[in-house]
Design goal:
Structural class: alpha/beta
Number of helices: 13
Strand order of the largest sheet: 7-6-8-9-10-11-12
Radius of gyration: 27 Å
Helix content: 40-55%
Number of strands: 12
Oligomer: single chain
Largest sheet: 7 strands, mixed
């Protein structure tokens, strides 16, 4: 009887082994499904203002072969110009366990860094990441933050020089500023240094809330400012149409740090291309998803600077733009 039992046992074992071979691929298949990486984007702007920059970031991802909703997912949060909302929005993205943060502006990058020291952060639109305390150095950032700098302190001097070139007789220039913004002190120092060389007196006008814009422009008119320099600031970007309208109403020739206000009717702008920076941010996201460490990815500074002038606005203000200036301009709006 024992040999028969042994034969039956071997037959059952063979059947069981065959069943396991059939089942194994079915049980292994779910484990091979690739996880779709999630990118958390922290915007200081409203969705409307962020839209063209978000489109540029998406185009950057498209160019690298990513397909939103299939090979990558985006989680966007907007502070709508209110910095006090950034920490809670950053914490929300951390709870979603995003794979990479994209933090737009210095306040957004700070909020993201305070929310997590583990999730990689790609910062953009940051003037001076070293002075802001976000990274140890441009060459070796250290920690979990890397990305792109706007190089604004060096450009602040040039902006005032260009404004003076367009209105040579100007002697008093208002500066729309917010000293609570960590980017402001180095920018203001550069602007003040340029003012001393150019023989221009500055009127620094503080605005920390959009509700203060009307009174700020009233102060400029009262003090007889002959020109305006708008400091780089998320609030000013978010409120750019209103600022352009107030400058027009006050008949103030204004210099902006980005081209977008000039498209909206502002006089002139000089600075890095914001859409170009957002496109480049996608490259950093791609590198990190492929295993690069933020601590070892050098900070990139802008190579594309744009000079823009709105001739229609110049005509309204009674200004004649020198031909030499127009030849240097990257964008001339007529």
């Amino acid at each position: 009887m024992r040999p028969a039992i042994a034969r039956v046992s071997r037959a059952r074992a063979g059947t069981l082994f065959a069943l396991l071979l059939l089942i194994a691929p079915l049980t292994a298949e779910p484990q091979q499904v690739r996880k779709v990486p999630r990118i958390g984007i922290l915007w200081p702007f409203s969705p409307t203002i962020a839209s063209p920059f978000a489109d540029a970031f998406r185009k950057g991802l498209d160019g690298l072969g990513y397909v939103e909703g299939q090979t990558i997912a985006l989680e966007e949060r907007w502070a709508e110009g209110r910095f006090d909302r950034l920490p809670s929005l950053a914490a929300e993205l951390v709870r979603l366990n995003v794979d990479v943060f994209v933090a737009v502006s210095t306040p957004a990058a700070r909020a993201a860094q305070q929310a997590t020291r583990m999730i990689p952060i790609v910062m953009t639109l940051v003037s001076d990441p070293v002075e802001s305390g976000l990274v140890a150095s441009l060459a070796r950032p250290g920690g979990n933050v890397t990305g792109l700098s706007l190089m604004h302190p060096e450009l602040s001097r040039k902006r005032l020089e260009l404004l003076k070139e367009v209105i040579p007789k100007v002697s008093r220039v208002a500066v729309l500023s917010d000293s609570s913004n960590p980017n402001t002190p180095p920018l203001l120092r550069e602007t003040e240094a340029a003012a001393r060389v150019l023989g221009v007196q500055l009127q620094v006008v503080e605005v920390r809330d959009p509700l203060e814009l009307d009174s700020a422009f009233s102060a400029m008119t009262r003090e007889r400012a002959g020109g305006l320099v708008v400091m780089p600031h998320s609030i000013f970007q978010d409120q750019r149409r209103r600022i352009v309208d107030l400058a027009a109403k006050s008949r103030l020739p204004a210099m902006y740090p980005w081209k977008e206000p000039v498209d909206a009717g502002g006089l002139m702008a000089y600075g890095a291309s914001v859409p170009d920076i957002l496109r480049r941010a996608a490259v950093y996201v791609d590198k990190i998803l492929k295993g690069a460490k933020p601590a070892e990815l050098p900070i990139e500074q802008p190579t594309k600077l744009e000079l823009a002038i709105n001739l229609k606005t110049a005509k309204t203000l009674g200004l004649t733009i020198p031909q030499s200036f127009l030849l240097r301009a990257d964008h001339v709006i007529e």
